[in-house]
Write a structure and sequence with these properties.
The complex is a heterotrimer of chains A (about 850), B (about 325) and C (about 120). Chain A contains 24 helices and four strands. Chain A is mostly helical and about 850 residues long. Chain B is an alpha+beta fold and about 325 residues long. A five-stranded mixed sheet of chain B has the order 3-2-1-5-8, with helices on one face. Chain C has about 120 residues and is an all-alpha fold. Chain C is built from three helices and no strands. In chain C, helix 1 runs antiparallel to helix 2, helix 1 runs parallel beside helix 3 and helix 2 packs antiparallel against helix 3. The longest helix of chain C has about 30 residues. Chain C is elongated. Classes of the chains: A mainly alpha (about 850), B alpha+beta (about 325), C mainly alpha (about 120). The interface between A and B is large, with 85 and 88 residues. Chain B: InterPro entries: CcO_II (IPR045187), CcO_II-like_C (IPR002429), Copper_CuA (IPR001505), Cupredoxin (IPR008972), CuRO_CcO_Caa3_II (IPR034236), Cyt_c-like_dom (IPR009056), Cyt_c-like_dom_sf (IPR036909), Cyt_c_oxidase_su2 (IPR014222). Chain B: Keywords: Copper, Electron transport, Heme, Iron, Membrane, Metal-binding, Respiratory chain, Transmembrane, Transmembrane helix, Transport.
Chain lengths: ~850, ~325, ~120
Amino acid sequence: MSAVEPRTETDDARMRREEAELRAAWETPRGWRHFSACNNQTVGLWYTGASFFFFLFAGVLALIIRAQLAVPGNDLVSPGTYNQLFTLHGTMMMFLFAVPIFEAVAILILPQMLAARDLPFPRLSAFGFWCFLIGGVFVGGSILFNAAPDSGWFMYPPLATDTEQTGIGADIWLLGLSFIEIASIAAAVELIVGVLKCRPPGMRINLMPLYAWYVLIVGGMILFAFPPLIAGDILFEMQRLFDWPFFDAARGGDPVLWQHLFWIFGHPEVYIIFLPSIALLAMIVPTFARRPILGYGWIVLAAVGTGFLSFGLWAHHMFTIGLPWLSLGFFSAASEAVAIPTGVQIFVFVATLLAGRAIFSIPMLFATGALAIFVFGGLTGVMVALAPFDWQAHDSYFIVAHLHYTLIGGMFFPLIAGLYYFYPFVVGRMLSARLGRWSFWLMFAGFNIAFLPMHITGLRGMPRRVYTYPEGLGWDWLNLVSTVGAFTMAAGVLVMVWDALRPGKPRAPRNPWNAGTLEWVAGDPSEPWGIRSVPPIRSRYPLWDQPNLIREIDEGKFYLPGAPEGKRETLITDVLDATPLQVLRVPGNSFKPLIAAVLIGGSFIATTFHWWLLAIASGALGIAAIMVWLWTGTAAIPEKPERGAGLGVTLPLYASGPASVGWWAMFITMVGDGTAFISLVFAYFYYWTIHPAFPPAGMAPPDGALMLGGGAAALAAWAAMLGARRANGGGHAGRVRLLIGAAALLSVAGAALLLLAPWQAGLDPVAHVYPATVWVLVLWTALHLGVGVLMQGYCLAGALAGRLTARHDIDLRNVVLYGHFAFLTVATTLAVLVLAPRAT
Amino acid sequence: MGAKGGRAFEGLEKAALVAGAGLLLGACSGPQSALDPAGREAAEVARLFWVMLAGAAIIWLAVIGTAVFAGRFQKTPLGERAGLRIVLWAGAIIPTLILAALLTFGLRLMPVLRAGEPALTVHVSGEQYWWRVTYRTAQGEVETANELRLPAGRPAEILLDSADVIHSFWIPALAGKLDMIPGRTNRLVLNPERTGTYRGVCAEFCGRAHAFMAFSVEVMEPAAFEAWLARERAPAAATADAGAFLANGCGGCHSVRGTPATGTIGPDLTHVAARPTLGAGLLANTPANRRRFVSETEKLKPGVRMPAFGALESDQLDAIDAYLGSLR
Amino acid sequence: MLFRRETPNLWTLLTPPAVWALHFLFCYVAGAIICAKAPEALGELRLAIAAATGLALVIIAAAGAQAVRHWGFGSDAPPHNQPTDEDQKHFLAFATLLLAGLSAVAVLFGALPALFIAECGA
């Protein structure tokens, strides 16, 4: 960059030129084109706003619920409406607020915290946001048409699979949320790669801000927690649409399988919600304790430990289904064990405060309130982790109280602390401390008045999800008090919303809290470039320990100070020690992610209404739109191989294979995809354990020869792709095209043979759960071969268009990576369907 | 570490706790309260709860007291090593020990709570939105609905399943809940100890009328129980005319043993007048309520499967009511 | 690959909790299958869980010992916050050691049910 400039340029002129370059490259579009923005900072702001709107919506639903329950025998709402209210309240709070707000806040602040211009896949973030918005409006808006889901946010079959007792609401839930889950996984990919590869040079793994550690862990948890629910959704929707009996006991299915799949998702989800909010506290506490966090390593222990242990708790939502005592014991044990890392987390904060010189502030007020509420919820959590106590507490108002104590204390209050803390950095204005105190005390008092009595209400026998209750059972005044508390809390939320939206707030100074981490470098939020130049980092709290850092960043003294080619660029560094590896060109603004989200969303929505032709057309167009987006926006071959990145470092502009972020994204996505597949395999073996024989007597497994033939074709396709990669490395363009074409044909043949096998055996998926399970595994596998064919076609087109060269082979290597996972899927399906029936 | 500020703070909290505890004890009673136990399991679990609550209160006060002190009142910062020792001991080691003890206690409790050689077997099936109750005795099965009577001091085995969706069987005064799941049979052993009238309820959301799926529970002296069971086993001894009841098709869904009414869709009504409640715990079983329930079924219990017979002539309703009232 | 390494990395950090996960999975799956298909074999199952617990603890201890070695046998106390290879290594090692401790406790907790519960029940 500056090497080619005339030496006579003054510093001032250089800075002005660089700023102009950056402004031009990173400009946020105006007018209606604003919605084509693909920049994590802009998308993060939309994302935060949308999920907060859904929070307010779901909060209003809760107020209607509390109004209905204020007095016994009330008839403010009908039971039908009430069932929609509580179902949608839970669904929206979990799927449209708690998880998305984590993704939103992370997308918003993580790039700044890592001094990254942007994370590597801004268009993916935009796509995820639009998916979320469309799905969220679809699910939430359904209640305005009296068509909301009404069988609980947990959707237990056989009630929720019964199309006569539950209407279109159940389909809206399943399809709308499946669509949103895509957005969550997209965000997880972005955030994991962001934390691992987009840190500033020198920010080694031991210097990462704690928030980034939590984001990394939670991203990983999403990859393993959401796919089981997607698998469950598939089984569920197959039953609702086509009567495949996965959860119908009369035809060999089992409603309990849904509970397993739902809670394998549902319990980690609680921690997916909790950890990122605690992460905000991990940033806030050191700032106000005016010292580094005490016990950085302990926090990492707590985050990683919680991440793992949270996957061993799911059955504590199922303590009353009649599991063997031994199983109850295992889940009880893990449920107690998970309290240990949580305790560590809390005491790290307490010890940091004790070892610092704490200043009091509104964020700290909310943090302390969060602690008071959350610790209480954690202690009742330790109680209900004991199965015998849970037998009483389960599905009673005690649990309603417990879960709100953990979520409001563990998620909501920390989030609001974060809102007060980060508001100046995001909006450039200060929130009022006086209104903050009002808001806090109204919320804190209101919350406790609402939920503390519910512990007693529950132990006095009030079950959950009843739209009214008789008088004289001792629940009357308790409920009235709870209702008063709920409205008090709502008043506190209103104060906060008013403060956030009102005009005329004072401008925030730069770094108003005197914090030590990099996000506070941000000056004027209207500058779109993220960070003026990317500094080398030598400390966990660079603003405290590296003198003159902000000034030198502003003067463009560090990496990537300008954008001489007018491209958006960000630095890629090494996973462990953050040495700079590549200057990554990230794509700019585009409507393509929005168009793709609308089309794919349209396909899901059309399926809800059984408009099959529209669903297929919309889905096909959506896939085409994604192809166009990829073709025009990714893996562009740069005009020169490398560029000076500043501070005398020259870095490549192109990387492929494990060195490229795209390869990591594919790998991470396929881990999630593999988890969904494993969940389907789990379903097969689950049925195997509950049936004396599986396949049951009189049912033949799918034709072995056809299955093996399909497997052989898939193996050959896989080998052909490996061959293509090798030929490409050797520069044999003709052979590459031939091999890719052969791989595509072989994949088609493999998929056809696999589908033929159960057909040949006459397996009718409606008749019994065995054929239904076989079909779902085979369809999943064939679908993966089919998607592989699309990718192979894309590579072939790239080869023909001259986009695929020996050095520029991102697409081919990513498709080969996909092929590994696809072949693993084929092999597993064969093992399950061909070997397992013969082994038992 | 600045014990003065902390102590003053804890004093205030303690006073609040005592006041709260007083309020709590007064607020625990009731026919459906897990804290007002009448059975062995419920009593054990209630005791467990009080112990855990006391422990939780102490821990909460200690943690929050320290946090508030650290954030607001302390003047001299602690050293790095001392801070890490707090994390190690208060954050990791002490919680591990407490949790290990609690877990061990809970695990040992589990098999004990539901042990006992049952003297009686009752099969309860959850149906939208009522309970089919069948006593399995040496002299054959005795079917009733929406009420469970048990002899005090004798373990009773309850077999639970469902005819439609998932329900959950919960009598808080006797024991914890156990789900009723289509395709499975769950087994619960109850050890009722104190005679009295209690209330059970469906604890798993089961559809539109989930709020109205309760039942009455009567724990009786064993002799009284045997007498009741003998009466219940006998066929109907109606003193009023069954004509209107049969002519309006009630027998298509309901059984009255010893009459042409043999329907099995709805509750058995052989001794309906002797039950304490109507409509699965919905209304007290009085003549006026019986008449209302027959004529305004959907209004009283939205979502119920039984159609309302409000369109019947008044004399027909009178006759049905008289007949039902005589089924003792 | 994970053991006898010169330097720790993210995979060695994740080894102890991954061992916990495998132990948990084994206990749960084996328990579910035995209680569904062959409750009479519960005695053997409890022995198998004891063996699995021993094995898991040995692996976790090995990971912990390696972490102690990477940590320089505790010669360098936290906070490990310098921008050096040394501190990066010590940080990862220390966090791994803590995770080994937590994983060992969680494995022991997970084995307790098999110690106290001698019937499938329900």
